[in-house]
Design brief:
single chain; 347 residues
Length: 347
């Protein structure tokens, strides 16, 4: 049962940001834009409209939210989109965040098409890590699914990030009939590069989703297929950094791999018990669970002359107390796992 704490505890900056199930929030995913320069077929329905510019949070407002989150015990912020580098001034925003919070764990999720020219700046900022989304190593297939012939640019970005020593994770949406035949290429990349190559189970996100049973490639099936090429060994939970991926070291005839395999299983085996995150959309809506369509509007309170950040703090604390167990929501759904598309939610 979700018990509402005393009002005094909601106003105490030192009070932990804890939900009604005993989970403490340490991680915020903040979307800086819903715009993206790719048109991935599984992500977009072709009928979407973008968030109006005036409704998108200003960078200064995002900085206020990060300040508040750190006061409430958050230790890690992931900046997402859409594609974050599609928004003008994004690198300057990163520089200000790092200057204000030298110890904050700052990470980015990107499609890799626009990050290349900024790698040296990211290194200077002290970015903690990059998650790069790449569903195929085939150039023609990449163009077909994204609508853009930019595969070579993504590979250049990957090499540049690794050369700069910025930790890199590669995220691939697992889709039977699309990239299941490329498993050897993904495994070879993990064997030869110090990268976590992570397969994410394809989820039906948003209205007009292209998800179907036929294209669902489950993590257990992926793991079985991987074992046909290499030996795998599970990584102990305490060495996984608290993330959702189940990690495996890889070993082949020539020895251990430089990277690892990761499986993210939102559908086949949920990880709700260890969830420590909140999401804030680019238009200032707080989502306490990816699968819950309930949103808490922070932008209006933040911009209100008599409310401001302290009112937002109370909203976040109360919303966190009501954070649900996402697996229970999934059990009741028969269509999309969320009504807003992933680019609007922020990944």
């Amino acid at each position: 049962m979700n018990e509402i704490p005393p009002l005094a505890s909601l106003c105490d900056p030192s009070a932990p940001l804890e939900d009604g199930h005993g989970r403490t929030v340490r991680y915020i995913r903040l979307s800086v834009t819903d715009r993206c320069n790719l048109r991935c077929t599984y992500c977009r329905s072709g009928m979407e409209t973008f968030i109006p510019h005036e409704s998108v949070l200003r960078y200064e407002e995002m900085e206020q939210l990060v300040d508040m989150a750190m006061d409430m015990g958050v230790e890690k912020v992931r900046l997402t989109g859409g594609e974050p580098f599609a928004r003008k001034g994004f690198v300057g925003f990163l520089e200000r965040l790092r200057a204000a919070h030298p110890t904050l764990d700052i990470r980015i999720t990107t499609n890799g098409t626009l990050v290349g020219p900024h790698v040296s700046e990211l290194k200077a900022i002290g970015l903690n890590a990059v998650n790069l989304s790449l569903d195929t190593f085939d150039r023609a297939k990449f163009e077909r699914v994204t609508g853009r012939d930019l595969f070579a640019r993504v590979r250049e970005s990957m090499d540049a990030l690794l050369d700069a020593g910025i930790p890199l994770k590669l995220n691939a949406v697992a889709m039977r009939g699309f990239n299941d035949d490329e498993l050897p290429a993904f495994i070879n990349y993990a064997m030869t590069h110090p990268v976590d190559v992570r397969f994410i189970e394809f989820m039906p996100m948003g209205e007009g989703t292209r998800w179907s049973d036929a294209c669902f490639w489950s993590a257990p099936d992926i793991l079985t297929a991987v074992k046909e090429f290499v030996s795998v060994e599970p990584v102990a939970h305490e060495q996984r950094n608290g993330g959702p991926a189940r990690l495996y070291t890889l070993s082949g005839p020539s020895g251990p791999g430089l990277g690892r395999l990761g499986l993210i299983t939102p559908l086949s085996s949920h990880f709700c018990a260890a969830c420590n995150r909140l999401r804030i959309t680019s238009d200032g809506a707080l989502r306490t669970c990816l699968f819950d369509d309930k949103e808490y509007r922070l932008r209006n309170a933040l911009r209100h002359p008599k409310l401001g950040i302290e009112a937002v703090r109370r909203i976040v604390a109360l919303a966190t107390r009501a954070k649900p167990i996402g697996a229970r929501i999934l059990e009741r759904r028969h269509d999309a796992v969320a009504q807003r598309r992933m680019t609007a939610i922020g990944g």
